[in-house]
Amino acid sequence: xxxxxxxxxxxxxxxxxxxxxxxxxxxxxxxxxxxxxxxxxxxxxxxxxxxxxxxxxxxxxxxxxxxxxxxxxxxxxxxxxxxxxxxxxxxxxxxxxxxxxxxxxxxxxxxxxxxxxxxxxxxxxxxxxxxxxxxxxxxxxxxxxxxxxxxxxxxxxxxxxxxxxxxxxxxxxxxxxxxxxxxxxxxxxxxxxxxxxxxxxxxxxxxxxxxxxxxxxxxxxxxxxxxxxxxxxxxxxxxxxxxxxxxxxxxxxxxxxxxxxxxxxxxxxxxxxxxxxxxxxxxxxxxxxxxxxxxxxxxxxxxxxxxxxxxxxxxxxxxxxxxxxxxxxxxxxxxxxxxxxxxxxxxxxxxxxxx
Length: 355
Known about the structure:
By secondary structure, this protein is mostly beta strands.
């Protein structure tokens, strides 16, 4: 099903790649995003959906010293977030805090709480445990996985442990299991590797080529979704990792990012370099299959897992973020700096409590 955008737009001044739901803001649907300009001053934008749901409002605009390649909001403190950045010559990562009175200041400055400065290789991402307050952080570079202890009150971050992926693997990113505080997945060019943070040892692997992105299902234990360049989207039951339990066709060019809905089973977003965001319904168990009629409307459509394609973009879409507060809303970010917030309510029935 094709569909242009009926969403709400917001434009950044420069190119951008990453956007994050501000999960800790329980009063608003809000997102953080940051720019990727080599020559200009980069910015972090705090944007919120208006109370009427008709426009995106910039609640805060903050200077950031370098190009932002990864950004993640702290899930338990709405003023704290992490970035991975490039100076043009090297990569770094830091934890930042938005000033408390930022709305009343003329030019609010971000406060750098801590630098994650133990990396010698290119840093790819910083992970927060998505399911609650936790004093640990994970950072991943090309070859290593770092576990940090973060103390925001003391403004310190200390390396607790470190492990190398081995010479044969070039790490590109990862995902922290929301169901298991000690489990993390890392992606590389030929596999997804699974780690136990207590021992920093690998516990399992899914062998698959050209994986761009991985995301755990927030509702179902053992389910991981991967985006794989030209191969589309694969859904894995990690108890049976030899082959995916479902395959979705993905995009007409590289499938760059996937994101599982925080509330509705089997509802998945994907984004690609074909300037498209796709909405999928792909339940993974017999019970979910039987109840998928309560999600998809009209019922005749659930033979086709593609619920909708949002194609009103002029550049590759790299950033995706579901709203935790209003899980029928999501934000997407295209490389030209355009944020679009959409509602998937037309594809959810009243039987799951969305009217």
